[in-house]
Amino acid sequence: MATTKAYAPASIGNVSLGFDILGAALAPIDGCLLGDWVSISDAEEFQLSVDGRFADRLPAGTENNIVTRCYNFFQDALAKEGKTKLSISMHLHKALPIGSGLGSSASSIVAAFYALNEHAGSPFDKDSLLLMMGELEGQISGSIHYDNVAPSYLGGMTLMTGQASPVALILPSFDDWYWVACYSGLSVSTAAARSILPQHFDMATCLTFGRQMGVFVDALYRGDKTLAASVMTDVIAEQHRKSLLPHFDEARDFANAQNGLAFGISGSGPTVFAVADDLASAQAIQTWLNDNYIQNEDGFSHVCKIDKAGTRVVSE
Ligand SMILES: Nc1ncnc2c1ncn2[C@@H]1O[C@H](COP(=O)(O)OP(=O)(O)O)[C@@H](O)[C@H]1O
Ligand SMILES: N[C@@H](CCOP(=O)(O)O)C(=O)O
Predict the structure, then answer these.
(1) What are 57-108's pLDDT values in tens digits?
(2) What is the complex's ipTM, to 2 decimals?
(3) 187 in contact with ligand 2, CB cutoff 6 A
Protein backbone atom coordinates (compact mmCIF):
# COMPACT_ATOMS: atom_id res chain seq x y z
CA MET A 1 0.00 0.00 0.00
CA ALA A 2 1.43 3.43 -0.97
CA THR A 3 1.96 5.73 2.03
CA THR A 4 3.17 9.33 2.06
CA LYS A 5 4.17 11.04 5.30
CA ALA A 6 4.98 14.77 5.51
CA TYR A 7 6.36 16.81 8.41
CA ALA A 8 5.85 20.60 8.66
CA PRO A 9 7.89 22.62 11.18
CA ALA A 10 6.58 25.10 13.76
CA SER A 11 7.04 28.75 12.87
CA ILE A 12 7.30 32.23 14.36
CA GLY A 13 4.73 34.52 12.73
CA ASN A 14 5.51 38.26 12.43
CA VAL A 15 9.08 37.91 13.84
CA SER A 16 8.07 41.12 15.71
CA LEU A 17 8.66 43.60 12.92
CA GLY A 18 6.69 42.07 10.04
CA PHE A 19 3.07 41.69 11.10
CA ASP A 20 1.44 39.16 8.73
CA ILE A 21 4.26 39.42 6.16
CA LEU A 22 7.32 37.89 7.83
CA GLY A 23 7.76 34.43 9.34
CA ALA A 24 10.49 31.97 10.29
CA ALA A 25 10.52 28.16 10.51
CA LEU A 26 12.04 26.53 13.62
CA ALA A 27 14.42 23.59 14.02
CA PRO A 28 15.32 22.66 17.64
CA ILE A 29 19.08 22.25 17.99
CA ASP A 30 18.62 18.94 19.86
CA GLY A 31 17.33 17.46 16.58
CA CYS A 32 13.78 16.76 17.75
CA LEU A 33 10.89 17.44 15.37
CA LEU A 34 8.84 20.45 16.50
CA GLY A 35 5.84 20.25 14.19
CA ASP A 36 2.89 18.16 13.07
CA TRP A 37 3.04 15.39 10.54
CA VAL A 38 0.39 13.94 8.26
CA SER A 39 0.46 10.56 6.56
CA ILE A 40 -1.70 9.34 3.71
CA SER A 41 -2.50 5.78 2.68
CA ASP A 42 -4.58 4.42 -0.18
CA ALA A 43 -8.04 3.47 1.11
CA GLU A 44 -11.54 2.92 -0.24
CA GLU A 45 -13.14 5.37 2.19
CA PHE A 46 -11.83 8.63 3.64
CA GLN A 47 -11.01 8.52 7.34
CA LEU A 48 -8.91 10.79 9.56
CA SER A 49 -7.19 9.34 12.61
CA VAL A 50 -5.21 11.45 15.10
CA ASP A 51 -2.58 10.93 17.76
CA GLY A 52 0.21 12.97 19.38
CA ARG A 53 0.69 14.99 22.58
CA PHE A 54 -1.98 17.58 21.73
CA ALA A 55 -4.44 15.36 19.80
CA ASP A 56 -6.91 15.45 22.70
CA ARG A 57 -7.22 19.27 22.34
CA LEU A 58 -8.44 19.05 18.75
CA PRO A 59 -12.12 19.77 18.10
CA ALA A 60 -14.30 16.67 18.24
CA GLY A 61 -15.42 15.25 14.90
CA THR A 62 -13.33 14.51 11.83
CA GLU A 63 -15.19 17.16 9.86
CA ASN A 64 -14.02 19.87 12.29
CA ASN A 65 -10.35 19.09 11.84
CA ILE A 66 -8.57 21.43 9.47
CA VAL A 67 -6.91 18.42 7.84
CA THR A 68 -10.30 17.17 6.65
CA ARG A 69 -10.99 20.62 5.19
CA CYS A 70 -7.64 20.47 3.40
CA TYR A 71 -8.60 17.07 1.98
CA ASN A 72 -11.96 18.38 0.69
CA PHE A 73 -10.35 21.51 -0.75
CA PHE A 74 -7.64 19.47 -2.50
CA GLN A 75 -10.16 17.00 -3.96
CA ASP A 76 -12.17 19.92 -5.39
CA ALA A 77 -8.99 21.44 -6.82
CA LEU A 78 -8.13 18.13 -8.51
CA ALA A 79 -11.66 17.92 -9.95
CA LYS A 80 -11.44 21.50 -11.29
CA GLU A 81 -8.25 20.52 -13.11
CA GLY A 82 -10.01 17.48 -14.60
CA LYS A 83 -7.81 15.12 -12.56
CA THR A 84 -8.84 11.91 -10.79
CA LYS A 85 -9.69 12.37 -7.14
CA LEU A 86 -7.65 10.55 -4.50
CA SER A 87 -8.98 7.48 -2.72
CA ILE A 88 -7.20 7.73 0.62
CA SER A 89 -7.26 7.86 4.40
CA MET A 90 -5.22 10.34 6.45
CA HIS A 91 -3.50 10.36 9.83
CA LEU A 92 -2.53 13.52 11.76
CA HIS A 93 0.18 13.48 14.42
CA LYS A 94 -0.68 16.60 16.47
CA ALA A 95 2.57 17.63 18.16
CA LEU A 96 1.98 21.39 18.39
CA PRO A 97 -0.36 22.90 20.98
CA ILE A 98 -3.41 24.71 19.63
CA GLY A 99 -3.51 28.46 20.13
CA SER A 100 0.18 28.51 21.01
CA GLY A 101 1.63 31.05 18.59
CA LEU A 102 3.80 28.38 17.01
CA GLY A 103 1.77 28.13 13.82
CA SER A 104 -0.08 25.03 14.99
CA SER A 105 -2.94 25.17 12.49
CA ALA A 106 -0.47 26.14 9.75
CA SER A 107 1.69 23.11 10.53
CA SER A 108 -1.30 20.76 10.12
CA ILE A 109 -2.39 22.56 6.94
CA VAL A 110 1.07 22.55 5.36
CA ALA A 111 1.75 18.90 6.21
CA ALA A 112 -1.69 17.94 4.86
CA PHE A 113 -1.42 19.79 1.53
CA TYR A 114 2.18 18.73 1.00
CA ALA A 115 1.34 15.07 1.62
CA LEU A 116 -1.78 15.28 -0.58
CA ASN A 117 0.18 16.84 -3.42
CA GLU A 118 3.01 14.32 -3.15
CA HIS A 119 0.57 11.42 -3.00
CA ALA A 120 -1.21 12.73 -6.11
CA GLY A 121 2.06 12.94 -8.07
CA SER A 122 2.66 16.70 -7.55
CA PRO A 123 -0.07 18.17 -9.80
CA PHE A 124 0.22 21.63 -8.16
CA ASP A 125 3.25 23.93 -8.10
CA LYS A 126 4.57 25.75 -5.01
CA ASP A 127 2.61 28.95 -5.50
CA SER A 128 -0.68 27.11 -6.16
CA LEU A 129 -0.16 25.05 -3.00
CA LEU A 130 0.75 28.13 -0.95
CA LEU A 131 -2.42 29.89 -2.09
CA MET A 132 -4.44 26.86 -0.96
CA MET A 133 -2.61 26.81 2.39
CA GLY A 134 -3.25 30.52 2.93
CA GLU A 135 -6.93 30.09 2.09
CA LEU A 136 -7.35 27.34 4.71
CA GLU A 137 -5.33 29.29 7.31
CA GLY A 138 -7.66 32.24 6.66
CA GLN A 139 -10.74 30.08 7.23
CA ILE A 140 -9.50 29.10 10.69
CA SER A 141 -7.91 32.32 11.96
CA GLY A 142 -10.25 34.98 10.64
CA SER A 143 -8.21 36.39 7.75
CA ILE A 144 -5.71 35.12 5.21
CA HIS A 145 -2.10 35.46 6.33
CA TYR A 146 0.88 33.50 5.05
CA ASP A 147 3.46 34.22 7.74
CA ASN A 148 3.13 30.72 9.24
CA VAL A 149 2.25 28.59 6.21
CA ALA A 150 5.00 30.05 4.00
CA PRO A 151 7.99 29.44 6.32
CA SER A 152 6.61 26.07 7.41
CA TYR A 153 6.29 25.03 3.77
CA LEU A 154 9.33 26.68 2.17
CA GLY A 155 11.66 26.77 5.18
CA GLY A 156 13.85 29.70 6.24
CA MET A 157 12.72 33.23 6.97
CA THR A 158 10.08 34.21 4.45
CA LEU A 159 8.64 37.54 3.29
CA MET A 160 5.20 37.67 1.71
CA THR A 161 4.98 39.52 -1.58
CA GLY A 162 1.23 40.11 -1.89
CA GLN A 163 1.54 38.65 -5.41
CA ALA A 164 0.13 35.40 -6.79
CA SER A 165 3.62 34.40 -7.93
CA PRO A 166 5.89 34.28 -6.09
CA VAL A 167 3.67 34.29 -3.00
CA ALA A 168 6.71 34.40 -0.71
CA LEU A 169 10.44 35.09 -0.88
CA ILE A 170 13.04 33.28 1.22
CA LEU A 171 15.32 35.86 2.87
CA PRO A 172 18.88 35.29 4.06
CA SER A 173 19.21 34.51 7.76
CA PHE A 174 22.12 34.40 10.21
CA ASP A 175 23.41 30.88 10.81
CA ASP A 176 24.84 31.79 14.22
CA TRP A 177 21.57 33.12 15.66
CA TYR A 178 19.83 30.97 18.24
CA TRP A 179 16.05 31.38 18.53
CA VAL A 180 14.70 30.48 21.97
CA ALA A 181 10.98 29.70 21.74
CA CYS A 182 8.99 29.26 24.94
CA TYR A 183 5.32 28.24 25.05
CA SER A 184 3.71 29.19 28.38
CA GLY A 185 1.07 26.44 28.26
CA LEU A 186 -1.84 28.89 27.98
CA SER A 187 -4.00 29.06 24.86
CA VAL A 188 -4.58 32.26 22.89
CA SER A 189 -6.93 32.04 19.93
CA THR A 190 -5.41 33.67 16.85
CA ALA A 191 -8.82 34.91 15.71
CA ALA A 192 -9.41 36.53 19.13
CA ALA A 193 -5.91 38.03 19.23
CA ARG A 194 -6.54 39.54 15.78
CA SER A 195 -9.93 40.93 16.74
CA ILE A 196 -8.43 43.16 19.48
CA LEU A 197 -6.11 44.96 17.06
CA PRO A 198 -6.96 48.39 15.66
CA GLN A 199 -8.13 48.51 12.04
CA HIS A 200 -6.22 51.74 11.37
CA PHE A 201 -2.77 53.02 12.40
CA ASP A 202 -1.37 56.54 12.49
CA MET A 203 1.16 57.91 10.03
CA ALA A 204 4.15 57.62 12.40
CA THR A 205 3.43 53.93 13.00
CA CYS A 206 3.10 53.23 9.27
CA LEU A 207 6.40 54.97 8.56
CA THR A 208 8.18 53.04 11.33
CA PHE A 209 6.75 49.73 10.06
CA GLY A 210 7.91 50.38 6.50
CA ARG A 211 11.32 51.71 7.53
CA GLN A 212 11.99 48.74 9.79
CA MET A 213 11.08 46.20 7.09
CA GLY A 214 13.24 47.94 4.49
CA VAL A 215 16.21 48.27 6.83
CA PHE A 216 15.84 44.66 8.01
CA VAL A 217 15.89 43.19 4.50
CA ASP A 218 18.87 45.34 3.52
CA ALA A 219 20.72 44.35 6.72
CA LEU A 220 20.05 40.65 6.08
CA TYR A 221 21.47 40.90 2.57
CA ARG A 222 24.55 42.77 3.80
CA GLY A 223 25.04 40.46 6.79
CA ASP A 224 24.69 43.35 9.26
CA LYS A 225 23.46 41.54 12.37
CA THR A 226 23.49 44.56 14.68
CA LEU A 227 21.35 46.67 12.37
CA ALA A 228 19.00 43.77 11.61
CA ALA A 229 18.45 43.08 15.32
CA SER A 230 17.96 46.77 16.10
CA VAL A 231 14.79 46.98 13.98
CA MET A 232 13.18 43.78 15.28
CA THR A 233 10.47 45.59 17.22
CA ASP A 234 6.70 45.34 16.87
CA VAL A 235 4.77 48.60 16.40
CA ILE A 236 1.54 46.87 15.38
CA ALA A 237 0.41 44.10 17.71
CA GLU A 238 2.61 43.78 20.80
CA GLN A 239 1.22 46.73 22.79
CA HIS A 240 -2.31 45.33 22.35
CA ARG A 241 -1.52 41.67 22.92
CA LYS A 242 1.07 41.62 25.70
CA SER A 243 -1.59 42.05 28.39
CA LEU A 244 -2.69 38.50 27.45
CA LEU A 245 0.82 37.22 28.30
CA PRO A 246 1.71 37.10 32.04
CA HIS A 247 5.40 37.98 32.72
CA PHE A 248 6.01 39.26 29.17
CA ASP A 249 7.82 42.46 30.21
CA GLU A 250 9.95 40.67 32.82
CA ALA A 251 10.90 38.07 30.22
CA ARG A 252 12.00 40.78 27.80
CA ASP A 253 14.01 42.54 30.52
CA PHE A 254 15.80 39.29 31.37
CA ALA A 255 16.53 38.50 27.70
CA ASN A 256 17.91 42.02 27.11
CA ALA A 257 20.12 41.78 30.20
CA GLN A 258 21.41 38.40 28.96
CA ASN A 259 22.84 39.67 25.64
CA GLY A 260 19.56 38.99 23.86
CA LEU A 261 19.50 40.60 20.42
CA ALA A 262 15.73 40.61 20.05
CA PHE A 263 12.65 39.51 21.97
CA GLY A 264 8.97 39.35 21.05
CA ILE A 265 5.69 37.51 20.75
CA SER A 266 5.70 34.52 18.41
CA GLY A 267 2.65 34.91 16.18
CA SER A 268 -0.32 35.86 18.32
CA GLY A 269 1.25 34.29 21.44
CA PRO A 270 1.48 33.14 24.12
CA THR A 271 4.80 31.72 22.87
CA VAL A 272 7.60 34.26 23.10
CA PHE A 273 10.92 34.15 21.30
CA ALA A 274 14.35 35.55 22.04
CA VAL A 275 17.34 35.76 19.70
CA ALA A 276 20.95 35.40 20.90
CA ASP A 277 24.14 34.81 18.97
CA ASP A 278 25.84 32.65 21.60
CA LEU A 279 24.58 29.37 23.00
CA ALA A 280 25.28 30.23 26.65
CA SER A 281 23.04 33.32 26.49
CA ALA A 282 20.33 31.38 24.66
CA GLN A 283 20.42 28.66 27.32
CA ALA A 284 20.35 31.18 30.18
CA ILE A 285 17.27 32.82 28.62
CA GLN A 286 15.68 29.38 28.15
CA THR A 287 16.26 28.48 31.81
CA TRP A 288 14.69 31.75 33.00
CA LEU A 289 11.69 31.26 30.73
CA ASN A 290 11.27 27.67 31.94
CA ASP A 291 11.29 28.86 35.54
CA ASN A 292 9.22 32.02 35.15
CA TYR A 293 7.23 32.15 31.90
CA ILE A 294 5.81 28.61 31.73
CA GLN A 295 2.46 28.52 33.55
CA ASN A 296 1.48 24.84 33.54
CA GLU A 297 2.53 21.33 32.51
CA ASP A 298 1.65 21.94 28.84
CA GLY A 299 4.42 24.53 28.51
CA PHE A 300 7.84 23.84 26.99
CA SER A 301 10.78 25.58 25.40
CA HIS A 302 13.37 24.86 22.74
CA VAL A 303 16.59 26.48 21.61
CA CYS A 304 16.30 26.50 17.83
CA LYS A 305 17.97 27.50 14.62
CA ILE A 306 16.04 28.46 11.52
CA ASP A 307 14.67 25.36 9.75
CA LYS A 308 15.86 25.83 6.20
CA ALA A 309 14.31 22.61 4.87
CA GLY A 310 10.66 23.43 5.49
CA THR A 311 8.09 20.71 5.00
CA ARG A 312 9.43 17.39 3.83
CA VAL A 313 8.58 13.77 3.35
CA VAL A 314 9.78 11.75 6.32
CA SER A 315 10.06 7.98 6.69
CA GLU A 316 7.80 5.85 8.86
N1 LIG B 1 -5.37 20.18 12.96
C2 LIG B 1 -5.62 21.29 13.65
N3 LIG B 1 -4.61 21.95 14.23
C4 LIG B 1 -4.84 23.08 14.94
N5 LIG B 1 -6.04 23.64 15.12
C6 LIG B 1 -7.09 23.00 14.56
C7 LIG B 1 -6.92 21.82 13.80
N8 LIG B 1 -8.12 21.45 13.35
C9 LIG B 1 -9.01 22.34 13.80
N10 LIG B 1 -8.42 23.28 14.55
C11 LIG B 1 -9.06 24.43 15.19
O12 LIG B 1 -8.56 25.60 14.58
C13 LIG B 1 -8.40 26.64 15.53
C14 LIG B 1 -6.93 27.04 15.52
O15 LIG B 1 -6.79 28.04 16.42
P16 LIG B 1 -5.58 29.05 16.36
O17 LIG B 1 -5.71 29.94 17.52
O18 LIG B 1 -5.53 29.67 15.01
O19 LIG B 1 -4.36 28.07 16.57
P20 LIG B 1 -2.86 28.31 16.22
O21 LIG B 1 -2.58 29.75 16.55
O22 LIG B 1 -2.15 27.41 17.17
O23 LIG B 1 -2.65 27.98 14.82
C24 LIG B 1 -8.87 26.10 16.85
O25 LIG B 1 -10.21 26.45 17.03
C26 LIG B 1 -8.75 24.59 16.66
O27 LIG B 1 -9.69 23.86 17.45
N1 LIG C 1 0.39 37.18 11.78
C2 LIG C 1 -0.48 36.36 12.58
C3 LIG C 1 0.30 35.16 13.07
C4 LIG C 1 -0.53 34.19 13.92
O5 LIG C 1 0.29 33.12 14.32
P6 LIG C 1 -0.24 31.95 15.29
O7 LIG C 1 0.91 31.02 15.42
O8 LIG C 1 -0.61 32.61 16.57
O9 LIG C 1 -1.42 31.34 14.59
C10 LIG C 1 -0.97 37.19 13.77
O11 LIG C 1 -0.14 37.80 14.43
O12 LIG C 1 -2.20 37.23 13.99
Answers:
(1) 999 999 999 999 999 999 999 999 999 999 999 999 999 999 999 999 999 9
(2) 0.97
(3) no
CATH of domain 178-306: 3.30.70.890
Ligand 1, atom 4: closest residue by C-alpha: 105
State in Å: Cα 196 to ligand 2 middle: 13
CB 309 within 8 A of CB 155: yes
**Is-contact 29 280, C-beta < 8 A?**
no
Site to probe by mutation for ligand 1, drawn from 39, 66, 298 as the one with most ligand atoms within 8 Å of Cβ, is: 66
Q: By percentage, how much of the chain surpasses pLDDT 90?
A: 96
Could you tell me the fold of the domain covering 3-172? Ribosomal Protein S5; domain 2 (3.30.230)
The finding on whether 101 has its CB within 6 A of some atom of ligand 2 is yes
Domain ranges of the chain: 3-172, 178-306
Nearest ligand atom owner, CA of 245: 2
**What would the pLDDT profile of 197-252 be if each residue is shown by its tens digit?**
999 999 999 999 999 999 999 999 999 999 999 999 999 999 999 999 999 999 99
**Please, which residues have CB within 8 angstroms of residue 315's CB and are 6 or more apart in sequence?**
5
pTM: 0.97
